[in-house]
């Protein structure tokens, strides 16, 4: 039997990798994919606890997280297309229109 | 024992491909490693007796979201990608902070104890799709309906944003 703490450690590692990706990359696609990484880390945690506590609420929440992730990806990719069309770049540090 | 070996394989592939996702220069390669990662996360779900969610993970994440990413990455030009710097100038500090945070979480998890760690393995008969459906459509009916509104907002928002402006 795999201990619960292993799953928590895996999810913590995945979440941290996602945070570093969001903060350090310039390409907006990689930033979005890092956000998906963090959502997946949360999903692993939810399902692991749902399994070990024998409670199905965690699995229901994973369904909702996947729904929100799908809607978020669609809207975010539309925004990226719009940004790339208007500004001609996909690098977040070149979007400096509001810089004082 | 065999479960632990399988988990170790899945965890190793997940962590390595996650690191590759955030370090590759070409976004198409990142999407491919993300695909590998989603397959192995689905494997972890199967290990946790969540077969339905493993299927949903493959269909929705790998089948829909990732293909959407791939289309948009290919649609927007990536030829400048080979010369441009891939990370901003703070990345060594940020990677260090990431290691520190991961170490702190690992320390806390290893010192603590979790419920259900010792006993376990009384497998409740049929924690399957049927029970999931019953709970979803009785106890969580209102959040379920709200999630359909969220999907509608996503649909309309994506169409409205990506549509070209017409002169009128």
What does this protein look like?
The complex is a heterodimer of chains A (100) and B (168). Chain A has 100 residues and is an all-alpha fold. Chain A has one domain (4-89): Helix Hairpins (Orthogonal Bundle), CATH 1.10.287. In chain A, 77% of the residues lie in helices and 0% in strands. Chain A is built from three helices and no strands. Chain A has helices spanning 4-24, 28-52, 57-87. Chain A is elongated. Chain B has two domains: 2-122, Up-down Bundle (Four Helix Bundle (Hemerythrin (Met), subunit A)); 123-168. The longest helix of chain B has 25 residues, at 51-75. In chain B, helix 1 runs antiparallel to helix 2 and helix 2 (27-47) packs antiparallel against helix 3 (51-75). By secondary structure, chain B is an all-alpha fold. Chain B has six helices and no strands. Helices cover 72% and strands 0% of the residues of chain B. The interface between A and B is large, with 68 and 82 residues.
List keywords for this structure.
heterodimer, A: 100 residues, mainly alpha, Helix Hairpins, 3 helices, elongated, B: 168 residues, Four Helix Bundle (Hemerythrin (Met), subunit A), 2 domains, 6 helices, 72% helix, globular
Describe what is shown at a glance:
Chain A has 3 helices and no strands. With 100 residues, chain A is mainly α. Chain A has one domain: Helix Hairpins (Orthogonal Bundle).
């Amino acid at each position: 039997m795999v201990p619960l703490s292993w799953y928590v450690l895996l999810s913590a590692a995945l979440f941290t990798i996602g945070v570093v990706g969001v903060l350090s990359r310039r390409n907006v696609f990689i930033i979005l994919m890092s956000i998906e990484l963090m959502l997946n880390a949360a999903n692993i945690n939810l399902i692991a606890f749902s399994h070990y506590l024998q409670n199905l609420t965690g699995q229901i929440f994973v369904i909702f997280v996947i729904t929100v992730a799908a809607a978020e990806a669609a809207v975010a990719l539309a925004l990226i297309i719009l940004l790339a069309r208007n500004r001609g770049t996909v690098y977040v540090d070149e979007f400096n229109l509001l810089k004082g | 024992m065999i479960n632990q070996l399988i988990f170790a394989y899945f965890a190793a592939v997940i962590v390595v491909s996650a690191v590759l996702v955030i370090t590759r220069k070409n976004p198409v390669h990142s999407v491919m490693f993300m695909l590998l990662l989603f397959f192995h996360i689905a494997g972890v779900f199967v290990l946790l007796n969540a077969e339905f969610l493993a299927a949903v993970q493959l269909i929705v994440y790998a089948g829909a979201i990732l293909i959407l990413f791939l289309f948009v990455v290919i649609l927007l030009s990536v030829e400048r990608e080979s010369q441009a710097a891939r990370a901003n100038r703070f990345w060594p500090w940020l990677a260090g902070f990431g290691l520190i945070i991961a170490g702190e979480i690992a320390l806390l998890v290893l010192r603590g104890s979790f419920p259900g760690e010792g006993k376990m393995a009384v497998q409740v008969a049929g924690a399957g799709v049927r029970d999931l459906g019953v709970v979803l459509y009785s106890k969580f009916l209102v959040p379920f309906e709200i999630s359909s509104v969220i999907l509608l907002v996503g649909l309309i928002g994506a169409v409205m944003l990506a549509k070209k402006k017409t002169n009128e």
